[in-house]
Design goal:
Radius of gyration of chain A: 38 Å
Largest sheet of chain A: 7 strands, mixed
Distance between the termini of chain A: 63 Å
Largest interface: A-B, 29 and 24 residues
Distance between the termini of chain B: 25 Å
Oligomer: heterodimer
Strand content of chain A: 5-15%
Number of helices of chain A: 28
Mean pLDDT of chain B: 84
Largest sheet of chain B: 3 strands, antiparallel
Shape of chain A: elongated
Structural class of chain A: alpha+beta
Number of strands of chain A: 22
Helix content of chain A: 40-55%
Structural class of chain B: alpha+beta
Helix content of chain B: 55-70%
Strand content of chain B: 5-15%
Low-confidence stretches of chain B: none
Strand order of the largest sheet of chain B: 1-3-2
Number of strands of chain B: 3
Number of helices of chain B: 4
Mean pLDDT of chain A: 86
Radius of gyration of chain B: 16 Å
Low-confidence stretches of chain A: 485-489
Chain lengths: ~900, ~110
């Protein structure tokens, strides 16, 4: 082994000292020949003859040099080096070609790297928890997205925990975003912190260790235990200036002292993982006893015992749940479906990302086809040179290797420019505000992405370089030489291959365009849905009131706030609500008193506890009856306003107005019917909704809503002034335009559509360039033929029409193939579409028209050049 | 009678033995010596001797130095290094083993004919 190492080292040294060793060997050769010649001369041979014999006995100078060099150095390394130098020299000589190829590859590889890092962060990499594959999401078996229907009451959670043997344990969090808020005071301006109550052993079960301090102790989890909080890493940095001594400090939250017991690691972005698009600033211990009578309040996460498959746990819960339900009959038949947490977290975005990934892969394939065509043209131009080299004995393998080296060099150049591009793209995606894509915070160009890029570059170069190289390897040098001589229209094989490449390019572009078209159509459909409310010109502010205020005083204060804010100049209407469309939500039962319901038939409805002018402020249509009035108060009859869907569900075929609705043990008279409002997503319509007056029902934290033409930045200070005048303990935080809620809801679609649209635009440009360069090359090859045709009487119009027609036939074939492929691909995309068929005729027709127009355009310029050929020049040019 | 094609590695052994027998020698001298001793039976392009010399140098078995020949010409002289002496002994033993095995095998095969 030591000898081998020593030898390799010596060889490497020899490579480095190449010119020195060569000179030395030349001298040695010379001395050898002189010695040999001298011996021959001594035998009586004349000088010239002696020299010749000496060279003959040596076996030729070149063979000796080659043998010496091979034994001395690392032959393969030197030939690769030579190939790379040769490729670079050739590229420098063709800067336009090198630049355009590098640019195309940079775009293709850069986009692929960026999307790969998104896919890697969101789909491929495990969640940022210890042994994340063992974590399961446990929720009632329902299709609904209403939070109350995806959660469990405390008693059921305890029943599941006590009864399960397949789980190491389970824990909970309180997923009603925005319902548990704290106002931090005593540190400058009052600041609202979104708190997340979590159940026992929450962080331990997820396998998250705090970066500073500790997690909740048993004491702190007990009711009325010491009040403690954990900060997220972001809050610690933002609000507490990354104070390393923060643990143990006491802060005032909503007028109650809390001790900061720890800071979570940056890797845990709870909101981004569990509730993308919303914000969690801090964690507190969930008060199980205080919430025992609150119905469905907790989302449940379990950890499978090591080695237990999900199916086994699911089977156990199937038999466990009826037992738990019968022990708590007040909740009816409670079900449980176990999903891996991973699948749950990226359920919505998973398919979209895969489509995006496929899309960007298509772009790269188109780029490959494009470059393949360009290189093919380049090698065709060199075919005579290559034929000569083959004829005088160059190895085919050597030439193929040289051509492949050129494409590898191009690819690596493209990749090195593509990486910065990917960085820019990832940065752009990450900094989009309000983009509700889970785990977006951990998207980065990491080692994995760079490895992917390297593999991509190599793979790409092989794909686009192999075809031209294979042509050389399979080519017949004699024929190649013959084809270069006069008269013949160039090799049929080449022309056929180039057409095939155009077909592939157009077909791929077609698939991409159809995909993007379908998603764009869906996007427009979603954007045009009847929201049921008019978000534009409505601003919402979180209204924080002192927790010390008694309920009647608080109501009076809120009423005064809405009255004064409503009277501000530029304000059309003002009101309050404790839930907003496309934002936080909860559901309650909504039944007709006295009616018997079968299991699972009891309707649920989204609940809004709102103020008198709510419908006018939000732009929700009042269809029948009346809105709330200032006199709907605690001491008057409980009234409720329902939406049309709930009215129909409760009293089909008759008017619900004036009838009763029961929720829990509360019976209320329906005094109004309003239009439906989209709640959980833009796509889900016809959900039950009911509104109570905040004068009659305890709310869960109010948003102040203001309809005004003034921008939020202008109206917010005016409102804050009103609040300050009224009661200094009032504050307004979280100023949002309601449009932002709609934007957040549509943002994942916008994200996908914008990216896929961008990719298909690139694909279109690439296809256009590909067609153009192919036609241009073909025309240049056929100049003489066109000259002959024109000499024989063809008009320039004939020539132009001929070229354009031929291109259109090829492009048409591409569109045909692409359309069939799109039909197949479209079916995979069906779940991403909304009110759009995967075989949408308009999209397909438009795509075909666009592609054919681009093809005609790309062919027109070279065709015109062909038609301007002067017969005399063309014929003389041979 | 046709000339013998050399087995891979045997040229190296011949070079080592030549240097061992004659002391420092230039490339041409080594080549001529092998031709003479083999009675011109070995097919040797004199050029191939240099590949062998480079290999042996890399292994540290021989050393090289420019010097002057008897008739006053500059030439590169090769000499056996201590490591080369050791290697020569090992390789020679190895060669004898192979040769005796080959002889036995071939003799047995002839007997069976």
């Amino acid at each position: 082994v030591r000898t081998a190492l020593r030898e390799t080292w010596q060889r490497l040294l020899a490579v480095l000292q190449r010119s020195h060793r060569d000179e030395d060997f030349e001298l040695e050769l010379q001395s050898h020949l002189e010695l040999a010649a001298a011996e021959f001369e001594a035998q009586g041979v004349d000088a010239a003859q002696a020299r010749r014999r000496a060279v003959h006995a040596l076996g030729g100078r070149d063979a000796a040099r080659a043998g010496h060099r091979d034994a001395r150095g690392l032959p393969w390394l030197e030939s690769v080096g030579a190939d790379v130098r040769y490729a670079l020299r050739r590229l420098v000589k063709a800067p336009a070609f090198a630049l355009s190829v590098t640019a195309i590859l940079a775009v293709g590889i850069g986009a692929n790297t960026a999307i790969f890092s998104v896919v890697n962060a969101v789909v491929l990499r495990p969640l940022p928890f210890a042994e994340a594959e063992r974590l399961v999401w446990i929720a009632p078996d329902t299709e609904s997205e209403g939070q109350s229907e995806l959660t469990y009451p405390v008693a059921i959670v305890e029943g599941m925990e006590g009864g399960s043997t397949t789980l190491d344990g389970l824990t909970t969090y309180f997923p009603f975003y925005g319902y548990i808020d704290f106002v931090l005071t005593g540190r400058g301006d009052a600041e609202r912190l979104a708190g997340m109550p979590v159940g026992p052993r929450f962080f331990e079960l997820l396998g998250v260790t705090p970066a500073l301090g500790r997690t909740f102790s048993a004491e702190e989890l007990r009711p009325n235990g010491p009040r403690a909080m954990l900060l997220t890493h972001a809050t610690w940095q933002r609000t507490f200036g990354s104070d390393p001594a923060i643990v143990g400090q006491s802060v005032t939250l909503s007028e109650t002292p809390y001790t900061i017991i720890g800071v979570l690691p940056a890797s845990l972005d709870f909101a981004s993982t569990f509730m993308p698009g919303s914000r969690v600033d801090m964690f507190v211990a969930a008060d199980y006893d205080g919430l025992r009578d609150s119905g469905n309040v907790f989302a449940v996460i379990g950890r499978l015992r090591a080695g237990v498959p999900l199916a086994a746990a699911q089977a156990e819960f199937r038999s466990l749940m009826p037992r738990v339900s019968s022990a708590n009959p007040q909740y009816g038949a409670v079900t449980a479906r176990l999903t891996s947490l991973e699948a749950r977290v990226n359920a919505r975005i998973h398919r979209s990302l895969i489509v995006l990934w496929a899309g960007v892969g298509l772009v790269l394939l188109i780029a490959c086809a494009n470059l393949s065509g360009l290189l093919l043209a380049r090698t065709a131009a060199r075919s005579k040179e290559i034929a000569v080299r083959l004829a005088i004995g160059a190895g085919r393998g050597r030439i193929v290797r040289q051509l492949l080296t050129e494409s590898v060099v191009l690819s690596l150049l493209g990749a090195s420019l593509g990486v910065p591009l990917a960085y820019a793209l990832v940065r752009y995606v990450k900094t989009r505000p309000g983009l509700s894509v889970p785990l977006l915070h951990r998207v980065e160009i990491d080692g994995m992405a760079l490895l992917f890029t390297a593999l991509l570059a190599i793979g790409t170069s092989v794909i686009f370089g192999l075809l031209p190289a294979a042509r050389v390897a399979g080519g017949d040098p004699q024929r190649a030489m013959r084809e270069q001589t006069r008269g013949s229209t160039h090799g049929r094989g080449h022309a056929w291959l180039r057409s095939a490449l155009v077909v592939v390019e157009v077909a791929l572009a077609c698939v991409l365009l159809v995909g993007a078209g379908l998603l764009l159509r869906t996007f427009l459909r979603v954007q045009a849905v009847e929201l049921g409310f008019a978000p534009t010109e409505v601003v919402s502010l979180r209204l924080n009131t002192s927790p010390q205020l008694a309920e009647p005083q608080r109501r009076a204060l809120v009423q005064e706030v809405t009255r004064r804010v409503g009277a501000l100049p530029g304000v059309e209407a003002a009101s309050v609500s404790d839930a907003l469309p496309l934002d936080r939500n909860r559901t309650w039962g909504a039944v007709v008193p006295g009616r018997a319901y079968g299991p699972g038939e009891r309707p649920l409805g989204f609940v809004y506890i709102a103020g008198p002018d709510y419908f006018r402020t939000m732009g929700i249509d009042l269809r029948e009856g009346r809105a709330f009035s200032a006199s709907d108060l605690a001491d008057t009859d409980l009234v409720v306003i329902v939406n049309e869907t709930l009215a129909r569900a409760l009293y089909p075929g008759q008017s619900a107005l004036g009838r009763e609705l029961q929720s829990g043990d509360r019976r209320a008279r329906i005094v109004g019917i309003v239009s439906d409002v989209r709640q959980t997503s833009l796509e889900s319509d016809r959900v039950n909704q009911m509104y109570y007056s905040y004068g009659q029902m305890r709310d869960a934290g109010l948003d102040l809503l203001v309809r005004t033409r003034l921008p939020a930045a202008t109206i917010a200070p005016a409102i804050r002034r009103v609040l300050g005048e009224l009661d200094p303990s009032l504050s307004a935080t979280d100023v949002r335009a309601l449009d932002a809620l709609v934007e957040r809801a549509i943002s994942p679609r916008r994200f996908i559509v914008a990216l896929l649209g961008g990719f298909s635009l690139i694909a279109l440009v690439l296809a256009c360039v590909g067609i153009y360069s192919t036609v241009a090359f073909t025309v240049s090859e056929r100049v003489q033929e066109f000259g002959v045709r024109m000499a024989l009487g063809a008009s320039s119009g004939d020539i132009r029409a001929h070229v354009v027609r031929h291109t259109l036939i090829v492009a048409g074939a591409g569109v045909g193939v692409g359309a069939i492929a799109s039909l197949l691909v479209g079916r995979l995309m069906e779940s991403l579409l909304y009110e759009t068929s995967a075989a949408d005729v308009n999209t397909f027709a438009l795509t075909a028209v666009v592609l054919m127009s681009v093809a005609a355009l790309a062919a027109y310029v070279p065709a015109t050049r062909a038609s301007r050929v002067s017969p005399m020049t063309a014929l003389r040019s041979e | 009678m046709s000339k013998l094609d050399l087995l891979q590695g045997t040229l190296d052994l011949m070079v080592l033995q030549t240097l061992h027998g004659l002391g420092p020698l230039h490339g041409y001298g080594i080549a001529r010596r092998i031709e003479q001793i083999s009675g011109d039976e070995v097919l040797l392009n004199q050029g191939t001797i240099y590949a062998s010399l480079v290999r042996l140098q890399h292994r540290g078995w021989i050393t090289a130095e420019w010097g002057t020949s008897d008739n006053n010409r500059r030439a590169k002289y090769y000499a056996l290094a201590p490591a080369g002496r050791l290697a020569l002994a090992q390789e020679t033993a190895q060669w004898h083993r192979i040769a005796s095995v080959m002889n036995r095998v071939l003799a047995a095969a002839e007997g069976a004919l």
